[in-house]
Amino acid sequence: MVDLVQKNALVMRMVPKKIYYLREMKYSLLISALLLIATSAFAETQGTLVDKRDGKKYKTVKIGDQTWMAENLNYEMQDSYCYDNNGSNCFKYGRLYTWKAAKKACPSGWHLPSKAELETLYNSVGGQSTAGTRLKSKNGWYDSVNGTDTFGFSALPAGYRDSDEYYDYEGTDAYFWSSTESTSYYAYVMYLNYYRDDAILSYYDKSDGFSVRCLKD
User: Fold this and answer.
1) Among 72, 115, 150, 171, which is disulfide-ready with 188 (CB 3.0 to 4.6 Å)?
2) pLDDT by residue (tens digit) across 156-193?
3) How far apart are the first and last CA of the chain?
4) Domain residue spans in the chain?
């Protein structure tokens, strides 16, 4: 009788451990399944754009209801430049365009986003206060203060070219033109900085050279 009681007690001590193990296993399987679903969903948002003008290929990504180029435009045209006049920087960062050039730079079926469309992008990634971190690439930023690239936008710190042909801020800043004017001399730009979590919409001189990300019509 004593042996039976001892055996029952031993079984009762083992049951909670077994239940705990089964719960942990179910939890682990659930997490794996959710990660697989998330990965599959993210993969479905990715695509490829071929610019028929020069044959260059660009990654694309759907964020919310918008489909964006996931790389900076690198279409050579008048009033477009490579950072520091070095062709390898065009390969790495894409070209820097004046506002006038940027308005005409996107391939057929795509366009330069408006200020309102950039604000829609902010909302789709969780708000302007954290958009910078979520849109920036996972590498390439100064002092390894990189972004999370949560949605695959992969913003790179291409720097800029001013109207005096001076280049600066490669590695620390990214600037993207919008199609929206502020005044006859200025237009709105999305600005990302390596140490800031937010994304800023401000206006700059139209003769400056900034990056272009095209948005699907």
Assistant:
1) 115
2) 999 999 999 999 999 999 999 999 999 999 999 999 99
3) 81
4) 1-45, 51-216
